[in-house]
Amino acid sequence: MPPRTNDHAPESGRDTGPAEPTGLSGPSAPAGPAAPPGTTDTRPGTGDRADARTGTGAATRTEPEPGAGTGTRSEAAARPESGTEAAGPGPEASPSGVRMAALRRFSAAACRSRGTHLTVCAALLAVAMTAGAVAVGGGRDGTQTGARTGADAAPAAGALAVGALAGGDLDAGVRALQSHLRSQPRDFGGWASLGLAYVEQARTNGDPSRYPQAERAFDRSLALGSGNEQALAGRAALAAARHDFSGALKYADRALRQNPYSERALSSRIDALVELGRYDEAVEAADTADSRRPGVPVFTRYAYVRELRGDVRTAREVLERALDGASAPADVAYVATALGQLAWNQGDHETALTHFARALAADEDHLPALEGRARAQAASGDRAGAIRTLEQVVVRSPLPGPLVALGELYEARGADGDRTKAAEQYALVDAHAALARAGGVNSDLDTALAAADHGDPEAALRAARAEWDRRHSVHTADALAWALHRSGRSEEALPHARRATATGYRNAAFLHHRGMIERATGHDGDARRSLTAALELNPGFSPLGAREARAALDDLEAAR
């Protein structure tokens, strides 16, 4: 399973001051009340996933630049500009329907040369994602035509956003904010809330065209309310979503200097330190966040930090207490999914399926739970069910993690046409990476992982080296090790493979990669131990990876 993130974690919109600590690091820490869902979470995409879309024309034509129109510069910066009229999605143009059509057209283009093939793929994927964005909102900052200007700032937008989004309808919350800002365009808190809502839309809908819109909304908020904490915390969430973790840390620290109890900033700070590989500091940040703002966003991060240090028992206990205290459907879905992912990582597929079922009972459209259920189904022997579930996921959100998982399941099944179907999924990953870069998202980790196994090993290595230059997490260490190995540089890969497994994090894919690298470098005994550990930990960690690990173990045993 890809690197686990809090991409879809609900967040409280209330950063009003200290809360009673739960003492998660203590022996008998009760879970605090679940935070009501807010506008966004701050963790990067599944598996550090990159979500972006090029400006193919459809989006940019409907969204004029901020400040367009007449009036003074300050007035232009403060008011919503005109754009196309926003319309709710209709049945004839639903985002998932258009994405399915795009995937079908992509299949028809599969016989083209690779360069033309990827160009067509990129265009189709952009059109598919554009449909979702255009259906949701109109102006470049999401505002509609006919906006009134010159109104004084009003403080109601923050409460409006949280109230609407707590009901579980993100698009309705965005529309409510847009309506509010048409009448109160100088409300800097409203612009910050809208920016956060766009970040959430980008990740939950697989539509990263919202990231530039979020950036413009935050810029407008800061222009109206210089240095306001809401916008700074939002910029931290946006930077994390774009995988700019150094930027996320910078903005989170600035926000926390103004409001030490900002839940979003506290959460983004943990995320940034984790993804930068600064794990000791991440532990301290998680303890601090728990003492200041206990709630679901902090609990889930606290658990993940513990899991990365090999403390699975504490991670599980924290998540279980968080689930016991959760009441809102978004909270239940997110925490249950985190528990399912934790169980899956430990090879407990039955328990994982139970947690994913609970998540989907709370929110049947929770994509991380659907993806997790598919992986657990595959690991439990239900390949047909896994394929059906992943096909649903990638139509709605064609992200690299589920695309690669679906492609590997097609390869493992091996039916007529499955090789072509698998190639289509991998090519869509390539296209998505290009679109991500165009949208300001760093996609090098996704590129490295997918290309190492299913593309150009040299391209994988370039991407992995670029990512390693930015951050030294266990996931980047593993990606660099695997790309080096697949490029024929196994001796250089070995120290990175060992570093990826040095924190105590229990990940079967990491152990598989390490074992294959150890075998290639002549460390047969170490290779047997690593490969055995991978299969004992999670025998269904990957349909192709597990098969490769078993074959390598058989060869090693035969050579003894």
Automatic annotation (TrEMBL):
Q: Which UniProt keywords apply?
A: Repeat, TPR repeat
Basic and acidic residues biased stretches: 1-14
Q: Which PROSITE patterns match?
A: TPR (PS50005)
Q: Which residues lie in Low complexity bias regions?
A: 21-45
Residue segments, region Disordered: 1-98
- Describe where the TPR repeats fall, as residue ranges on this chain: 333-366
What PANTHER family would the database entry show?
A: TETRATRICOPEPTIDE REPEAT PROTEIN 6, UDP-N-ACETYLGLUCOSAMINE--PEPTIDE N-ACETYLGLUCOSAMINYLTRANSFERASE SPINDLY-RELATED
The protein in question is named Tetratricopeptide repeat protein
